[in-house]
Design a protein that fits this description.
2 copies of one chain form a homodimer.
Chain A lengths: L8 H8 L3 H8 L7 H13 L6 H8 L4 E6 L5 H14 L5 E6 L4 H13 L4 E4 L3 H6 L3 H8 L4 E4 L9 E5 L1 H14 L5 E5 L5 H16 L9 E3 L5 H11 L7 E4 L2 H13 L9 E3 L16 E3 L2 H17 L8 E4 L2 E3 L8
Parallel strand pairs in A: 1-2, 1-3, 3-4, 4-5, 5-11, 6-7, 6-8, 8-9
Antiparallel strand pairs in A: 10-12
Helix pairs in contact in A: 1-2, 2-3, 5-13, 6-8, 9-10, 11-12
Chain A binds a DNA duplex (30 and 30 nucleotides) through α2 and α4.
Chain lengths: 343, 343
DNA sequence: TAAATTTTTTCAAACGTTTGCATTCAATAT
DNA sequence: ATATTGAATGCAAACGTTTGAAAAAATTTA
């Protein structure tokens, strides 16, 4: 019958009739400990499965080696890629990532941040929830900042909050995507937009709009319809688009999921892609290369964003107080595939 | 200039020339504290942004309210659904989920488990990595068990390790999928298998094989090819299948990704789906409903698994030592769509 | 053999919080 | 005026570990 209570240094000390300090030193290979003592203690510790209580150490050293990662969702390829990037850099350095999913809720986001601070997380990576964004509240962020806990924005950001951030150049990615469609001769380009208010949605939308304007094309309000990033949310909007008197001959989706939803509807209508209808997505998710036809998209370097964000965190950590926040914008890259390649 | 060091109860005590106990009680609305004292202290605490140090509390109470979730990946729909399910149940109860991604590595898995124990996680949900599975090591699991830390297996499991587990009935799902293909008149059914050794791979493979046998069909070894669950990994195997003298007229993919990869290759070859080639996947990922044609698949209730696993954890927690481990097997469900519906 | 030196071990404090028990102080009852 | 009560606060220990300084034990030197 194994003991339920974890064995402590004191238990071992009692067993050897020595002081806890000796045990501690023995376990940590302190030079001032007798070789025999050390060996005996280490052996016994292993035997009984002693494992250092990191909680007490955290208290003592005021270091928890824990970082918070607060994101609205982990259901998309991109988000998981970011986490992978963070993980790749920070895990080997001994950090534990505490991943918190807000589900786009302001309340949950607030609660998580508060909890992370209470648990003395040493840094927080945050992609703000949509509700937070909409509401414009950010006292919960002030709280983090006033604690001098490094706070790194990922992707979605408050324009007017002073902190480091790592984002992808959504604007130029979208611009390039739409310009490509124009080059391919598409005349009526619709946009399946993301939720209002989010940086990613708005930046891509702006890229779309500016590109049309630059090329002297009309921005038809009715060709711009909202979605929520999910496949399903593209179905009805696309149907509506295709039933118009002057339907679009190309669709720029806010992400791959949405573009794939649109592709499905267009094919159901008997449209040939890319001949009758051009399609471009965003994200370069793994599946996009294997749809039929394959999907033209914009690459979004999620892993790199995670790695850059880690870098920002580390340099803020090493800075001595007077740290100048940094903004990293990674370029996005158009990946031309079949869905838009009209010859 | 805000202080970098978090303000403690002692700081507040000093400010009010009272003892830490008084501050503690005041903050916790202890009845034996003078109303004015209480109000003043609470006000001041709020003003200076006091936040209880949960680390010290954890040490004192030996409770961390932290649970480990150790999974090989979070890049698939299914895994994120499971996490969502765990989250939905446990977050409201005040638990923090510590999500650890092993990337299928035994070493990382071991390290994470050890770390979770050191950090005194109160329970661990584990989907073992492939390497662990292959190697057959499980001392790192014994360690968890001997600590009496509830350990719940998710999905992938060691047959011979005594603990609670929540899994999906992969076998019957696969069986139903293949039987459906047979009913539809497909004669040569190939299987794009998952990595060897993993429960999910093997169970689905077994369902496939047993179904063929039950229906008196030949199990052709050359029609069974390994993949790694990813889209890309289906491309070459499918090409190989289609170039055979007697190529298959249907493919059962170990998951949707693989089936979608196969779909792409088949369509490239000019095969019509489902007329010339039947396809079935596994997972019922969101995208599967919107491929063209839509993909017949087997639903895998990830969220439910997460919720069931939570339940298992909670009942083990509430049990007084003599807990009989439980095995939950959730049914999987065939979802018939276009890719196999040959009339 | 005593003093000097080296090796090994112990003591005590610290990290931040809670809590049973003891103490203080004022108000009330005798 | 004194005993009794009650309210409000303080003390000290505890959680598990580390670490500088002090103490003890063992060894070497003269």
């Amino acid at each position: 019958m194994n003991s339920s209570r974890p064995v402590t240094i004191k238990d071992i000390a009692k067993r050897f009739r020595c002081s806890p300090s000796t045990v501690s030193r023995a376990l940590n290979d302190h030079p001032a400990i007798n070789e025999d003592t050390r060996k005996n203690i280490q052996e016994y510790a292993k035997e009984v499965g002693y494992q250092r209580n990191e909680v007490s150490l955290s208290l003592l050293n005021k270091k928890t080696a824990t970082l918070g990662v607060v994101v609205p969702t982990i259901s998309n390829y991109y988000e998981t890629a970011v986490i992978e990037g963070l993980h790749n850099v920070l895990q080997p350095m001994g950090y534990t990532l505490n991943i918190c999913v807000t589900n786009e809720s302001y309340l949950l986001e607030k609660e998580y941040l508060s909890k992370l601070l209470s648990n003395r997380a040493e840094g927080i990576f945050l992609s703000v929830s949509q509700e937070t964004y909409d509401s414009g509240y950010y006292e919960h962020l002030e709280q983090v900042a006033s604690r001098k806990t490094p706070l790194i924005f990922i992707d979605r950001e408050y324009e007017d909050f002073e902190t480091s951030r790592a984002t992808v150049d959504d604007y130029h990615g979208a611009f390039a995507a739409v310009e490509h469609l124009i080059t391919m001769g598409y005349k009526q380009i619709a946009h399946l937009k993301g939720p209002n208010g989010l940086t990613v949605s708005e930046q891509r939308f702006k890229g779309y709009k500016d590109c049309l304007i630059k090329h002297g094309m009309e921005v038809r309000e009715e060709l711009i319809i909202n979605t929520n990033f999910k496949v399903e949310s593209a179905i009805l909007p696309t149907r509506r688009l295709l039933e118009m008197e002057t339907p679009p001959d190309a669709i720029f989706g806010v992400n791959d999921q949405v573009a794939i939803g649109a592709m499905r509807v267009a094919k159901d209508k008997g449209l040939r892609i890319p001949q009758d209808m051009g399609l471009v997505g965003f994200d370069n998710s793994p599946i996009s290369a294997y749809t039929f036809p394959s999907l033209t998209t914009v690459n979004r370097p999620g892993r790199k964003i995670g790695m850059e964000a880690s870098r920002l965190f580390l340099s803020e950590l090493n800075a001595s107080g007077d740290y100048a926040h940094e903004s990293i914008v990674l370029p996005s890259e158009l990946i031309i595939r079949e869905s838009s390649l009209r010859i």
